[in-house]
Amino acid sequence: MNKVILSAALSAAISATALAQSGTNSPYSQYDLGLLSANGSGFNRGMNGLGLGFHSHNQVNYMNPASYSSLDSLSFIFDAGLSGQITNFQENSVRKNAKNGVFDYVVAGFRIAKHVGVSFGVLPYSTIGYNYSSTKNLNDRDAFPSTEVGTSTYEGKGGLHQVYLGAGWEPIKGLAIGANIGYLWGNYNRSIVTSFSNGTNSLSRYYKATINNYKLDIGAQYTIKVSQKNELSLGVTYGYGHRLGANPQCEVISSDRQTGVADTTLYEISNGLSIPTSYGAGLMFNHNNKLKIGFDYSLMQYAKLGYPKLNRNNNILQYGLVDGVYNDRQKFTAGVEFCPNDAGRKLAERIRYRIGASYATSYYKVNGIDGPKEYSVSAGFGIPVVNEWNNRSVLNISGSWVHQEVKGLIKENTFRINIGFTFNERWFAKWKVD
C-alpha cells in the first residue's frame, strides 16, 4: 500500500509540472473549452486512439474502465507519456509552422481482488493556445458596429485536466463493467483587442472562466470465445454530460486615447458551461493474442449545448447562451496490433506493431459553416524492455499525422510523436522461503 500511495503522489507531482504547458497553437482552440485532447495511453495511440473493445493484462486502458478487470493479479502497472508535435498552418498562400511539447498523461493500475481491478491517474481533457490577428471592415453584424477598419488581435490560453479513480469488475465470465469518477479542473483566458483606423479608439473584450467539477464515465465489455484461438469483444461507454457550475465572464473595455477615458462593463452567465453527453462502442477481434483488429465509434452530443456569446440586440449588449453554434461530434477509428510471437526469444518477435486511422467531424461552426473535419493516421511499436531485474515493461513509440481542413478557412497539418513507458513491476507475489 505504501508503494501505491507513493506512485499516486509521484503521478500528481509529475503532472502538476506539466499542466501549465499548452499543447496547441491552433486558432480552432478558441471554441468552447478548447481542442479535445488525444485519447488513450501509449499503446492506444499507436492505433490512433482505438481501445473501447480492448482489454489487456499488462496495459491500462482507461478509455473503457471495464477493462481494468483484466489486469494481472501480480503486477502494479505505471504508465506515463509525453508528445511533441510540429503543426503547419496554411491560409491562402501564407504558411507558418509551430512547435509544441507536452507531458501527456500519468496512469496506474493493479488488481485488488479476483476479477476486480482499479486504476488512477491524471489526464488532459482539452487545451487552448492561439495568437493571431486579422483586419476587416466592421459592420452591423458585429457586436460593436462601426464604419472604421479594425485590426483585431485574438489570443487565448488554458485548458482542462482531470484526475480520476476507476474500477472494473467481471461479475460473470466474459462480462465486465466499470466506472471512472474524475475531478475536472482548469480555466481559460481569451481576448480580442481591436484597434481602429482612426488611431484614437480601441475596444477590448476579455473572456474568462474557471472550472472545478466532476466527470463520470461508465463502461462495459462482453467477450465471447469464437474458437480455441479466437475471441470477439464488444465494448460500450457512456459519459455523463452536465453543467459545470462555472460562470463565464466577458469584460468589455472601450478606450478613447484622446481623452484618456475608458469605459468598462462586466458581463457574466450563471452556470453557463457544460460538457456533452457522450456514447461509444467498439469491437475487437483477437487471434491467439497475436493479431488484434478493432473498430470504434463515438458520439458527443454538443448540439444540445449553448454557446456563450456577446451580441447586440436593439442597441443593447447582451452576453448569453445561443443555440446553433455546436454540432454533434462523431468519430470513427480503425486499428490493428500484431505481435509475431509474444513468447519468442528474439526481440523482433516480441515487438507489437500497430497502425490506425480515424475520421472525425467538427463540434462547432465557424461563421455559420461547419468547422474542419479531421483525418488522421498513426503507426507505432510496443518494444519490450528486458534487463536483469525486469522483463515485463514496455516502451510505446508512435507517430501520427492529423489533417484539418474546411473550405475558406485555415488548413492544419500536424505531425506528432508520442512516447510512453509502461513500467510493470511484480509487486504482489508471495515468496516461499524454505
Molecular structure report:
- This protein has three helices and 23 strands.
- With 434 residues, the protein is mainly beta.
- The protein has a single domain (2-426), classed as Beta Barrel (Porin), CATH 2.40.160.60.
- The chain has a 14-stranded antiparallel barrel. Strands 9-12 form a two-stranded antiparallel ribbon. Strands 15-16 form a two-stranded antiparallel ribbon.
- The two termini are 26 Å apart.
- Mean pLDDT is 88; it is low at 1-20.
Task: Summarize the topology.
Blueprint: H1 2-18, E1 35-36, H2 42-45, E2 75-91, E3 94-113, E4 116-137, E5 149-172, E6 175-196, E7 201-225, E8 230-239, E9 242-243, E10 249-256, E11 261-268, E12 274-275, E13 278-287, E14 291-300, E15 307-313, E16 316-322, E17 329-338, H3 347-350, E18 352-360, E19 365-366, E20 369-370, E21 373-385, E22 393-405, E23 411-426
Antiparallel strand pairs: 1-4, 2-3, 2-23, 3-4, 4-5, 5-6, 6-7, 7-8, 7-10, 8-13, 9-12, 10-11, 13-14, 14-17, 15-16, 17-18, 18-21, 19-20, 21-22, 22-23
**What is the N-to-C order of secondary-structure elements (H for helix, E for strand)?**
HEHEEEEEEEEEEEEEEEEHEEEEEE
The rounded distance between the terminal residues' Cα atoms is: 26 Å
The total number of structural domains is 1
CATH class wording: Mainly Beta
Give me the CATH architecture, please: Beta Barrel
Report the portion of residues in β strands: over 45%
The tally of strands reads 23
The amount of helix comes to under 10%
Q: CATH topology, anyone?
A: Porin
Strand line-up across the major sheet: 2-3-4-5-6-7-8-13-14-17-18-21-22-23
Number of helices: 3
Low-confidence stretches: 1-20
Counting helices, strands and paired strands, the structural category is: mainly beta
**Rg for CA atoms:** 24 Å
Report on the biggest sheet: 14 strands, antiparallel, barrel
* Overall spatial form: elongated
Q: What value does the average pLDDT take?
A: 88
